[in-house]
């Protein structure tokens, strides 16, 4: 049960191939100039370039737009974007500087796939740790009220880390339906985990984002992984797919909630929750899942 190659390839490209997508800056001067205002956006916080902060950055401003896009580049050129709604001409968003200490570059604009550099500044994060797999991101929004409330309801206070992951996996496989229609609609798959929880449907990428968000919400580092999945010997040709790795007792445990949720028959999703691909035997996993890259979410 995999998303079509075209849909998933485009969706994943928006997540980790950012340097040629929304990380693009069109002019050489834009890479090095410092500016806090454009004709449609004014940044009011931070108020100076290279301000120091500890792991979190509050970005505030005014705009004539309905939403502002923020692009963040980490110390090792990691890139991610955030959509920030504008209400009554003002916007505010706290973003996690989760790629460790160092200089982060921030752009703002009206297009998530192209930033012209009219707004560009830097901040210096003093956070010692690399928190990319535990902190929230734009799509793994583990800090959202929806995700936090659900995670709290699923996990008992005395549960082991493995039991926490098992409870999360059970909820996702039992409550998220595979969205067959989304195979032909790329944009519909690029939504935050909290939105998928509300909609109760999605493709493999959405299953992985929800699983990662719930895991991080209960304090477990979680990766979103993409690669080829399938086994030709079983008549299931490998295709692009997304799944998770979650850190439990010092070991990255593989989890594929999509495959454990059910199957597709005659174009319809048939729910059949299982734990076949929850921390499976290593030989089975290597036969069916071949990672290509860990996304930045």
From TrEMBL:
Write down the PANTHER family for this protein, in alphabetical order.
CYTOKINESIS PROTEIN 3 (PTHR46333:SF2)
Which InterPro entries does this UniProt record tie to the protein? CAP/Cytokinesis_protein (IPR052557), Papain-like_cys_pep_sf (IPR038765), Transglutaminase-like (IPR002931)
Name any one Pfam family assigned in the record: Transglut_core
Q: Which residues form the Transglutaminase-like domain?
A: 196-259
**Organism of this sequence:** Syntrophothermus lipocalidus (strain DSM 12680 / TGB-C1)
SMART domains documented for this protein: TGc
GO cellular component terms, A-Z? cytoplasm
Cited SUPFAM superfamilies: Cysteine proteinases
Question: Which regions form coiled coils?
Answer: none
Protein name (record) = Transglutaminase domain protein
